[in-house]
């Protein structure tokens, strides 16, 4: 399930003045740094920089890896585990970079939690259901800055910017610079798969349903299979992954199963599911 929706929570009507536009500009500044400077904050404990080809989102792919570089930022207030603290480029190298990203993270986290409340109402649950179950108390929000290079490689294989995958959490809010390449497959279990371009809508987020929501709803809300194709143009985007608290146990909602439609997935601790998926992403 992928939808482009307008969110009044964050003002996107004047791109030069919005936190989204500022964050994209700062993201471009980071990715334009020399590689040795970026490697000073290389990924540790799922925070920091990942270089080109470090990830393969589709483990079945035979390519060397996905043609993108990225930077992971967790909740600015998450200081419960020392190893999970964010990494930041030096202030003298990128002034105001950290404060810009922390501001954007806070704003989009608020938007995501409000969307989760709307999903609860759509499922005929209490508006604060996911807060009461511990999923959003506190939520696990990770911002991922992404840069896809403009150069197209000569290869006998298709080289993906991001190979086919679904996101791991509850939902994802994606902001882009308007360059195309994102595709979705509405019927992920059908063969052959049919891929459709996702068109940019100015002033809107692209919202993906994630695996955790699919498990909760017994596939009533299906996670979105998607990929990014390289177009010959540089592409920048910012994906905000809203996931459950790692200690939350995700199991089929009673309203989403019956004798004729039993639960398709066993209960699982959210943190264990996430670690399992990340293990395969970096297995190569």
Structure description:
This protein is of the alpha+beta class and 284 residues long. 23% of the residues lie in helices and 22% in strands. The protein has six helices and 13 strands. The protein has helices spanning 19-31, 35-38, 97-122, 129-132, 211-216, 270-281, and strands at 2-5, 48-50, 69-73, 140-148, 160-165, 171-176, 182-185, 196-197, 205-209, 225-229, 235-243, 249-250, 268-269. The strands form three sheets. Strands 1-9-6-11-4-3-2 form a seven-stranded antiparallel sheet. It has a four-stranded antiparallel sheet with strand order 5-10-7-8, with no helix packed on it. Helix 1 crosses helix 3. The longest helix is centred in the middle third of the chain and has 26 residues, at 97-122. Residues 1-17 have low confidence and may be disordered.
Note the main attributes of this structure.
alpha+beta; four-stranded antiparallel β-sheet; 6 helices; disordered N terminus
Radius of gyration based on Cα positions: 18 Å
Query: Count of DSSP E strands?
Result: 13
Oligomerization category of the chains in this entry: single chain
How does the major sheet shape up?
7 strands, antiparallel
Mean pLDDT: 87
* Helix share, percent: 10-25%
Range of strand content: 15-25%
In short:
By secondary structure, the chain is an alpha+beta fold.
Annotate the secondary structure layout.
Elements: E1 2-5, H1 19-31, H2 35-38, E2 48-50, E3 69-73, H3 97-122, H4 129-132, E4 140-148, E5 160-165, E6 171-176, E7 182-185, E8 196-197, E9 205-209, H5 211-216, E10 225-229, E11 235-243, E12 249-250, E13 268-269, H6 270-281
Antiparallel strand pairs: 1-9, 2-3, 3-4, 4-11, 5-10, 6-9, 6-11, 7-8, 7-10, 12-13
Helix pairs in contact: 1-3
